[in-house]
User: Which sequence fits this backbone?
């Protein structure tokens, strides 16, 4: 394999990992809260990203990514845990029957105007993950003195993974909302945990693979809590 | 004009509170404390990656119990 091909393949694969995280957040939030504000947030994230990349170029690596990871990770963790908890309660209470927005006092997305929750979640996901893709491109490209092929590979990863997300969005939209809220809550909690701790200087034992372990851990916890909630509900009904 | 600015600021504050804290301020506070404690561990050379996931699951259980009692 030539030097350029090595740079392209390595950058594409590394960027794909970040792009999957980005597209997962946008897809999950869009299917749960609606697409208009989610895509507006993702678009705003890409716009800011483009300005930052154009202004800084290869000096991009000077941006302190650690504090940004702590900020975005903490916000995603705190918000994700709310959906995680509500998703568990709703799936336990109603199975996959879905729910009304006013259940549990949650504000529905507005009929008109911007849904700021969807906007902010998509914006943060795109900005942080987009910056990570840009870092990968600059690091691999500048080290090998092949910035052109690295930029092509990074952009290709975002386009390919984004295309897969686009193809999947109808399937995701068909998932019952209560289950979808639990899935997205689990994803946001997992990503938030990973990024916040990484930003604080924690070294994950298996690096990026620990995101999958966090997803498994939180999913098993959700299943356990759903079982406990159902049992408690059944006992309460028997006692009544 | 000042009234409109105040209303907008109050709206932003309400959104941020709902986004970050939500309906269980104890759970949010516990997670923030877990992050601070993890940072202190890391500064002192302990790679405490396990604390936040563990506390997140525990606080979810506590929060679900509190919600069920309401």
Assistant:
């Amino acid at each position: 394999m030539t030097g350029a091909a090595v740079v392209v393949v390595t950058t594409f694969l590394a960027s794909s990992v970040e792009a999957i995280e980005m597209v997962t957040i946008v897809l999950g939030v869009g299917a749960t809260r609606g697409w208009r504000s989610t895509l507006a947030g993702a678009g705003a994230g890409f716009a800011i990203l483009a300005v930052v990349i154009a202004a800084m170029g290869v000096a991009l690596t000077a941006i302190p990514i650690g504090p940004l990871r702590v900020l975005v990770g903490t916000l995603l963790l705190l918000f994700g845990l709310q959906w995680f908890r509500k998703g568990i309660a709703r799936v336990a209470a109603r199975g996959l029957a879905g729910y009304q927005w006013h259940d549990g006092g949650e504000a529905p997305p507005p009929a008109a105007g911007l849904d700021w929750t969807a906007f902010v979640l998509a914006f943060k996901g795109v900005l942080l993950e987009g910056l990570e893709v840009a870092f990968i491109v600059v690091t691999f490209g500048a080290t090998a003195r092949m910035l052109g092929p690295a930029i092509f590979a990074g952009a290709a990863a975002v386009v390919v993974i984004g295309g897969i997300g686009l193809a999947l969005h109808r399937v995701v939209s068909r998932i019952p909302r209560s289950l979808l809220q639990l899935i997205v809550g689990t994803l946001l909690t997992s990503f938030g945990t990973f990024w916040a701790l990484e930003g604080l200087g924690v070294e994950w034992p298996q690096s990026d693979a620990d995101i999958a372990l966090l997803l498994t851990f939180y999913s098993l916890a959700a299943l356990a809590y759903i079982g406990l909630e159902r049992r408690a509900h059944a006992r309460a009904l028997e006692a009544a | 004009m000042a009234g409109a600015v105040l209303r907008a600021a109050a709206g932003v504050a309400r959104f941020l509170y709902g986004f970050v804290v939500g309906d269980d301020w104890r759970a949010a506070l516990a997670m923030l404390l877990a992050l601070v404690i993890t940072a202190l561990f890391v500064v002192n050379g302990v790679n405490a990656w396990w604390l936040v996931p563990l506390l997140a699951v525990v606080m979810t259980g506590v929060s679900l119990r509190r919600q069920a009692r309401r």
Observations:
- The interface with chain B takes residues 70, 74-75, 77-79, 81-82, 84-85, 88-89, 104-105, 107, 116-117, 120, 189, 193, 196-197, 200-205, 210, 214, 217-218, 221, 225, 228-229, 232 of chain A (CB under 8 Å).
